[in-house]
Design brief:
mainly alpha; 44% helix
């Protein structure tokens, strides 16, 4: 095994870097049945792109409101990108990626309360 992962020149502090690849790797490990269904319908690649775009938009919205990049990522990463495992949530309460219309409204008190994200601060 290579020690390249230890080299700070090969690790990005930006969680949005290589987001599509991150999503693919996570979904294939955590949600293999969902991935198989999306591939069977030939919408897997599109679903990954949409999840990445929705995640990026939600992060940018939070940053525009004053949150740091990492606080914004922590607040929204499970909305589209890092989904729960099939064991933890077999059917995804809000449906699979092909049914998602848009990113949630991050200002909705049910999604991000004042204790989760502080402008310019970290998730807590």
């Amino acid at each position: 095994m290579s020690d390249n992962w230890l080299d700070p020149r090969t690790v990005s502090p930006n969680p949005l870097a290589n987001l599509e690849q991150t999503i693919r790797e996570h979904w294939e490990e955590a949600r293999p049945n969902m991935v198989a269904r999306l591939k069977a319908r030939d919408i897997y690649d599109e679903s990954v792109r949409n999840a990445a775009r929705s995640t990026e938009e939600a992060v940018l919205d939070l940053q525009a409101g004053g949150a740091s990049l990492l606080a914004a990522w922590e607040a929204v990463r499970t909305w589209y990108a890092l989904l729960p495992t099939e064991e933890d949530d077999p059917t995804l309460e809000r449906g699979e990626p092909d049914t998602w219309e848009r990113a949630p409204d991050w200002e909705d008190e049910d999604l991000v309360d004042a204790g989760d994200v502080q402008p310019g601060g970290d998730a807590g």
